[in-house]
Amino acid sequence: MHNEKLYTLIKSPIVTEKSARLGETLKQIVFKVDLNANKREIKKAVEDLFKVEVTKVTTSVVKGKRKRNRFGLYKRSDYKKAFVSLSKDSEIQFEGIN
After folding, report:
1. Which of 10, 18, 59, 75 is the 20 to 30 Å CA partner of 31?
2. Going by C-beta distance under 8 Å and a sequence separation of 6 or more, which residues neighbour residue 44?
3. Distance CA 30, CA 27 (A)
C-alpha cells in the first residue's frame, strides 16, 4: 500500500473520555477513517504507521446529525469510526503529536 493512501485512510484519532476508557480496559484505539476503507486496509495502515501489532478491527458508520442555525437547516457529514484492538505488548501514545 502506498504511503499517500496510508495517510489519507486514517484521518484522526478520536480522543474522548469514552475512547480513553476503551484504551485502558480493552486496549482499543478509536480512529476516524475514510468512508470507503475496509477492515484489512485499516489494519495494514495502523500497523505500518504506528509500528504496532493489531489483533482486531471493528468499524461503524456514524450518520451526520441535522442541525439548525440562523441560515437554515444543514447536515453534518457522515464518517466511519474504526475500533482497533492492539496486542498486549503494543501501545500507541498520542501526547506530543501535532
Report:
1. 75
2. 1
3. 10
Whether 86 contacts 28, CB under 8 Å: yes
Q: Is the pTM of this model over 0.90?
A: no
Angle at 20 between CA 86 and CA 36, to 5 degrees: 60
Contact 30, 81 (CB under 8 A): yes
Q: How far apart are the first and last CA of the chain?
A: 24
Residue 26 has a CB neighbour count (10 Å cut-off) of 11
Q: For residues 94 and 97, what is the distance between their CA atoms, to the nearest angstrom?
A: 6
Q: Mean of the per-residue pLDDT values for the chain?
A: 91
* Residue whose C-alpha cell reads 480493552 in the numeric block: 26
Q: Mind listing the pLDDT tens digit for each residue in 13-50?
A: 999 999 989 989 999 999 999 999 999 999 999 999 89
Closest CA to 94 of 14, 25, 3, 1: 14
